[in-house]
Amino acid sequence: MPAWFQCPRCPDRSHPRFANRVKAPLELEIRIATENDRDSIEQLIFLSARELSRGYYSDEQIAAALARVYGVDSALIDDGTYFVAEADGMLVGCGGWSKRKTLFGGDQFVNRDPERLDPGREAAKIRAFFVHPNYARRGIARALLARCETEAQRDGFNSVELMSTLPGVEFYRASGFSAANSILYDAGGVSLEFVPMKKALRGSSNMINANDNWGGAANA
Ligand SMILES: CC(C)(COP(=O)(O)OP(=O)(O)OC[C@H]1O[C@@H](n2cnc3c(N)ncnc32)[C@H](O)[C@@H]1OP(=O)(O)O)[C@@H](O)C(=O)NCCC(=O)NCCS
């Protein structure tokens, strides 16, 4: 493993972690994920979680998250609201949004609620963002999130919410989300800290305090 993977919180932009940022701008294509992408998405999630979670979660926690929480949610693929990002001829990112109540977790996750959300009252869910470790900090998650927010707003939602992993918090904060108090999720006897986060969509008059009216806790 390259040494720079051991320092995921390092703010030093001269650090080798950020060496790929001097490369030419990415030619990124974002498209709707299909069933045919499933294997590639699962591989990407595995790699992303394993490498980009170091320093935030222990190896045991990463393994538990991969076994019990992270993964493809078929409902999003069926709804056409899950996206993949491709660059350099490979899949480098994935992420989506949902008009259903399930807040997080792949098909294997136990707490699921496929009921449709009410866009007038409830927040759309931002779901399962994972970026290839060799392509981190190149704006891929930002581009995926922009697509999700645009579509959620087009469908009448005024706000979006999610349950963030610890490695995701700074990304979502930088993207305008505010955080509520973290929760501990029991993944088969292994405790995982997650952070509920919420954001009003542009043009919406909603003022968001992530600790208020938190609709997601019931799903956690
Ligand atoms: C969280 C994650 C999706 C971010 O993807 P990314 O493509 O690297 O993010 P972006 O390049 O679009 O980042 C946009 C901005 O978010 C902020 N940001 C992203 N990652 C950050 C980090 N590790 N530390 C601090 N700020 C960060 C920065 O402000 C960044 O802009 P900048 O690079 O110009 O400074 C990625 O780190 C990942 O896949 N992590 C592992 C899986 C995971 O935990 N996913 C979250 C599920 S809820």
Low-confidence stretches: 1-16, 215-220
Per the CATH scheme, the topology name is: Aminopeptidase
User: Biggest β-sheet, characterized?
Assistant: 8 strands, mixed
CATH class category = Alpha Beta
What is the overall pLDDT average? 87
What's the gist of this structure?
Strands 1, 2, 3, 4, 5, 6, 7 and 8 form an 8-stranded mixed β-sheet that branches. It contains 5 helices and 8 strands. It is 24% helix and 23% strand.
Protein described:
- The chain is built from five helices and eight strands.
- It has 220 residues and is an alpha+beta fold.
- The chain has one domain: Gcn5-related N-acetyltransferase (GNAT) (Aminopeptidase).
- Strands 1, 2, 3, 4, 5, 6, 7 and 8 form an eight-stranded mixed β-sheet that branches.
- The radius of gyration is 17 Å and the shape is globular.
- The chain binds coenzyme A.
Provide key terms for this protein.
single chain; 220 residues; alpha+beta; Aminopeptidase; 5 helices; disordered N terminus; disordered C terminus; binds coenzyme A
SSE map:
Layout: E1 29-32, H1 38-52, H2 59-68, H3 74-79, E2 82-87, E3 90-98, E4 124-131, H4 140-154, E5 159-164, H5 169-174, E6 178-179, E7 183-187, E8 190-200
Parallel strand pairs: 4-5
Antiparallel strand pairs: 1-2, 2-3, 3-4, 5-8, 6-8, 7-8
Bound molecules: coenzyme A.
